Amino acid sequence: MKFIDPHIHCVSRTTDDYLFMARAGVVAVSEPAFWAGYDRSSAASFADYFRHLMEVEPKRAARYGIQHYCWLCINAKEAENVSLAREVIKLIPPLLDHPLVLGVGEIGLNKNTRNEITIFEEQVEIAAKHDQMILIHTPHLEDKHKGTSIITSILKNDKRIKPERVLIDHCEEHTIRMARDNGFWAGLTIYPVSKVTPARGADILEQFGPHMICVNSASDWGESSPSMLVDTALEYRRRGHSEREVADVFYDNPCRFFGQGGKWKLKPETSI
Amino acid sequence: MPHSKDVLEHQYLEMRWRTLSLAADLDRIGRCENGPQTLRNDARLQKLRKALEILTSDGGQDRAERVQMIFSDMTPPPK
């Protein structure tokens, strides 16, 4: 089977992970800009990071037959430094026409602070002004419900934002309705520890239905694994869902979401 | 739709293991200095106790969502 990991931080992974993904059938990935494991000291560090995302990782991925796309932004964690964040935001608009840049992301909230909200709103403005798709980071453990509520309210109140061109990521049982009931795509991030497991991911797909859901591993600097994507697909298959149904979630859905921007080359293999 | 007994058969040992892990976690805290007071008074453990009540209740098929809400911050956003 073929898979797409719609959210993975390849810059923090080894070539062994690329090899694993290729062997497991992952043919394409999208990598949102995020925290590097430490707070960067200047906007110049982000300029280099963006070049890494747009030029270096696509070449690394191509060696394993994997297509690599990316998203640009300043992440919520480093957005707490408003002056640095504004310097970084200035770097983004000239890069948005790059053929491998899918949009603005992953923007959102980390601790739901006033500064994070300010910088989130300023990056939504960039996305709206440049007609970009948006990938949203919702807080992980403290506090996802509140952060998702703030984010969806801001997005709903901006009439320029088309919800179907926004993916609200890291949804869980108590936040997925806030995403989908408002017309947004929902992302499920599957982890080996502390957050949604493959079994819970499959539960959510079954309980809420697979429409407008993308499943990802979000593998990064922390305890995480590219295998979570495939493990969730296997769990879904083990429960009796057909290969076609698995492909619909793990291949076609990312193609449907990403395909709206005109840069993503792969097409869904079935229509819904 | 699989039979509930089949799902239970598949999951039971892991469910038992998770319950035992939680019991051992609480014992470990309890053995430490001020352990009994922490077990009794810590706000996080009080939330955990509420979550366990949901796990052992009979009603509804949305236990995971209800447990999520126990651990969620319902205060208003920052001004």
Report on the architecture of this protein.
The complex is a heterodimer of chains A (272) and B (79). Chain A is an alpha/beta fold and 272 residues long. Chain A has one domain (3-261): Metal-dependent hydrolases (TIM Barrel, Alpha-Beta Barrel), CATH 3.20.20. Helix content of chain A is 42%, strand content 15%. Chain A is built from nine helices and eight strands. Chain A has helices at residues 15-24, 43-62, 82-91, 114-129, 144-157, 176-180, 198-208, 227-238, 243-258; strands at residues 3-5, 26-31, 67-72, 101-108, 133-137, 166-168, 185-189, 213-216. Chain A is globular. The two termini of chain A are 19 Å apart. The model of chain A has no long low-confidence stretch (mean pLDDT 96). Chain B has 79 residues and is mostly helical. Chain B has two domains: 1-41, no CATH class; 42-72. Chain B contains four helices and no strands. Chain B has helices spanning 4-31, 35-41, 43-55, 63-70. In chain B, α1 packs across α2 (35-41) and α3 (43-55) packs antiparallel against α4 (63-70). The longest helix of chain B is centred in the first third of the chain and has 28 residues, at 4-31. Chain B is flat and about 45 Å long. The mean pLDDT of chain B is 94. Chain A binds chain B through residues 112-114, 117, 141-146, 149-150, 172-174, 200, 203, 239-240, and chain B through 2, 62, 64-65, 68-69, 71-75, 77-79.
